[in-house]
Amino acid sequence: MDQTEQLARVFEAQRGHLRAVAYRMLGSATEADDAVQEAWLRLNRTDADAIHNLEGWLTTVVGRVCLDMLRSRKARREETLEADVVEPVVRDERVADPEEEALLADSVGLALLVVLDTLTPSERVAFVLHDVFDVSFDEIASIVGRTPVAARQLASRARRRVRGEDTVLTSDLQSQRVVVDAFLNALRAGDFNGLLAVLDPDVVVRFGPGAGAPGAPREIRGAENWAKGAVAFSHLARSVQPALIDGSPGLVFAAGGKVSRALTFKIANGRIVAVEILADTAQLEQLDIAVLAS
Questions:
Q1: Cα distance between residue 213 and residue 204, in whole Å
Q2: Band of the pLDDT at 233, cuts 50, 70, 90?
Q3: Out of 23, 24, 73, 222, which could bridge 32 as a Cys pair, Cβ 3.0 to 4.6 Å?
Q4: d(Cα 91, Cα 194) in Å, to the nearest integer?
């Protein structure tokens, strides 16, 4: 066995770990595979005999590659600000397997992916590497180009966002959570009557830019009118996740862990009286989204 074959076998033994690291940072199976492949290419261009800890070296390389990809993704979002851009354009035009993406999102936790997508690239890398994979802040500092103290602060800020530590669930918020959960359960089941049970008869639903079909009304009034349309999309509800949105319980639609829709609710007397559906990229990026614990 020559050195290249031996190196390939060692790399394959690390592939699962590296893909897990990349997926948690990127939220895309296709992009995660790209990052792992780039790590392999860089390994081939490096004197492997000089690497004392191959797993650590590869993890660091994947972290740097992912950071570059996240920064590039953020730059494209800022340039385009297109409401329906959810998945970044990939270089080789491959189409991600929706079932694989769903399974990966389930294994990681869709709620976590949703909140990670709201962090800055450096925060996301610092949090994932330290809190999920126990990488030291000294190593993270070299990846994000900061001091170890600054890297620790990045992870700390990300941790507060992920866990929603700045928000205390009061009894009022908890009761609102019950209503939102009941709505989501009915939506996932395609339960028309279940939706009517949590919607005020005179509920008002407003659609922000890009949230509705072209030419469709920007506002729907009445529980039955909205529920009829909502049950038609019950098959997509797997990608809908409860979340704290600007401190109140709401829902986000996040196929592949990337937020493309957010639903905010006004709740009174145990029923939803108003809904706002947001899809504009600029508006979504201004939202403070945190994991809503069970």
A1: 18
A2: confident
A3: 23
A4: 44
